[in-house]
Amino acid sequence: MAQLPFEFQIALRYTRARKRNSKRNRFVSFMSVASMAGIALGVAALIVVLSVMNGFQKEVRDRMLSVVSHIEVIEPPELNAPLQPGGETKPFDWDAVLRIAKEDKRVVAGAPYVLSQAMLTSGDSVRGAIIRGIVPSAEAGVADIGSKMRAGKLDSLQPGEFNVALGIDLARAMRVRPGDKIVLISPQGNITPAGMVPRLKQFTVTGIFESGHFEYDSALALIAMSDATRLFRAGGSLNGLRLKTVDPLDAHLVAHDLMTRLPANLVARDWGQINRNWFAAVQVEKRMMFIILTLIIAVAAFNLVSSLVMTVTEKQSDIAILRTLGASPRSIMGIFMLQGALVGVLGSVLGVVGGTLLAMNVDTLYRVVGLELIPKGIYFIDYLPTDTRPADVAWIGLTALVLSILATIYPSWSASRINPAEALRYE
Question: Alpha-carbon distance 21 to 26, whole Å?
Answer without folding.
Answer: 8
